[in-house]
Hints:
Blueprint: H1 4-20, H2 24-40, H3 44-48, H4 54-64, H5 69-80, H6 87-101, E1 104-111, H7 117-131, E2 134-141, E3 148-153, E4 156-161, H8 162-175
Parallel strand pairs: 1-2
Antiparallel strand pairs: 1-3, 3-4
Helix pairs in contact: 1-2, 1-6, 2-5, 2-6, 4-5
Amino acid sequence: MADPQAAKRYAQAAFGIASDANAIAQWRAELNDVASVLVDSGLAPVLADTKVPLDKRLALVDRALDLSPLAMNFARLLVSKGRSGEARAVAQAFERMADDHDGIAHASVTTAVELSPAELDAIANRLTQSMGRQVRARAVVDPSIIGGVVVRVGDKLVDGSIRTRLKRLRKELEGAR
């Protein structure tokens, strides 16, 4: 189980290095490669196994990855510190930091029925205009909202669902008694 706080600290360190070198895009790609090998590949169990000597695990990392020297050191550090299983969480935290740096926000758009790509793009464009940041929208279908749309961007929530409107109406009617 990945430790989100540790993953965030490692991602912050990597982001600092990437920012200083003006190589955020390169690090974004390299951390995804690191996560693929350390978490998703057949080597992952061996790299995480502390019974395997560290020098052998590091040699496997060296052979499996073709990275810049600093990114390779970062991958080796994750393995050395027993954090190889958190490489995917580190890459995701780095992605969020890089997107924030680039002025990109992510939105979750929940509707009762599936949206067409054109509808989702229209919502993303509208959010981009209103927020002044590039917004990437992801569609979620939840029939329980009955109709309307619920949009979450970061910690902001706009709930225009029929379910919520009905709940408000119910409370108003109960209060009128």
